[in-house]
Amino acid sequence: MKNKLLLLSMILTFSSCGIFKTTNTPITSGAEAEDVKEVDTTAKFIGKYNITVFGVPDVGELELIMNVTRDGDELKTEIEEGEQESGLDVLKTEIEEDILYIDTYVDSYGINVSFEIYVDGNSVTGYLADMFELEGTITKYVKLK
């Protein structure tokens, strides 16, 4: 009986330690790893934007032309001033959850507001300051070889 209890306790000890055992198997083989390419999520946001913002106080429709470029890992936005002074100074440009955010400072009101831009193909929609709807188009930059 003593031998059976000893044998049973040894089996339980080794089997319980076995649940903590892990294997280090590679997720992809060498051939599959070469086929995996890093997806550039910022590429669809790079380009020249022609945007109309509707219902802006004292202006009505605000038409803007913005250039979004990449400088290393950082995104940069420049607002081209058209017929009317935009009064916007770009503070920061970033992408979160497939949405382009452009933080700006409005000179005439002394406040910070943000563009929230959704890009679908060449079509652009979104909001300025979460209040004013915007629509427009994006012209993607073509890479030269």
Report how far apart the termini are: 82 Å
User: Could you name the CATH class of the domain at 43-140?
Assistant: Mainly Beta
Given the helix and strand composition, which structural class is it? Answer: alpha+beta
**The CATH topology of the domain at 43-140, please?**
Lipocalin
Number of strands: 8
Main sheet strand line-up: 3-2-1-8-7-6-5-4
Q: pLDDT below 50 for ≥5 consecutive residues: which ranges?
A: none
**SSE string:** HHEEEEEEEE
Architecture per CATH nomenclature, i.e. the level-2 architecture of the domain at 43-140: Beta Barrel
Determine the number of helices (DSSP H or I, runs of at least 4 residues): 2
Strand content: over 45%
Average pLDDT = 82
Describe the fold and architecture.
Strand 5 (99-106) and strand 6 form a beta hairpin. The protein has an eight-stranded antiparallel β-sheet with strand order 3-2-1-8-7-6-5-4, with no helix packed on it. The chain has two helices and eight strands; from the N terminus they run H-H-E-E-E-E-E-E-E-E. The protein is α+β, with helices and mostly antiparallel strands and 145 residues long. It starts with a helix and ends in a 5-residue tail after the last strand. The protein has helices at residues 2-18, 30-35, and strands spanning 47-56, 60-71, 74-80, 88-96, 99-106, 111-120, 123-128, 132-140. The longest helix has 17 residues, at 2-18.
